[in-house]
């Protein structure tokens, strides 16, 4: 079935769908459910992570780095994964990309990408 809306309006959530093994009955032009083992191949995922947009006010991670550990301006900002882009397909196999942001490690808030070292940006 189709993917349900993301469980969260911001940040990373989960979306679910119903996955059934079905067959089209040609004589009646109707669909019948079958046991899962009647379908070939791997059963598609019934849930997947989803991402709509960043949450306001930072990422809400617990704990902060100690101030004395942050000595250089270059160490104050670092790349961090925040979530995923929308899946490229609504049904079947698709592609989802990771969302990487530049983060101020003291405030845990998103910062301008120019403040993070581009050579250290994860894929």
UniProtKB/TrEMBL annotation:
It is found in: Secreted. It comes from the Eukaryota. Keywords: Repeat, Secreted, Signal. The keyword Secreted applies. InterPro entries: ADAMTS_ADAMTS-like (IPR050439), TSP1_rpt (IPR000884), TSP1_rpt_sf (IPR036383). One of its GO terms (cellular component) is extracellular region. This is ADAMTS-like 1.
């Amino acid at each position: 079935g189709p993917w349900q809306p993301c469980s969260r309006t911001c940040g990373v959530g989960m979306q679910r769908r119903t996955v059934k093994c079905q067959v089209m009955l040609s004589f009646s032009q109707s669909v019948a459910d079958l046991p899962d083992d009647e379908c070939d191949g791997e059963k598609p995922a019934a849930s997947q992570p989803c991402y709509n947009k960043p949450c306001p006010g930072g990422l809400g991670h617990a704990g902060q780095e100690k101030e004395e550990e942050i000595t250089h301006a270059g160490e104050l900002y670092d790349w961090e994964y925040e979530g995923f882009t929308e899946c490229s397909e609504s049904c079947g196999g698709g592609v989802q990309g990771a969302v990487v942001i530049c983060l101020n490690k003291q405030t845990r808030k998103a910062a301008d990408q120019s403040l993070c070292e581009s050579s250290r940006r994860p894929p």
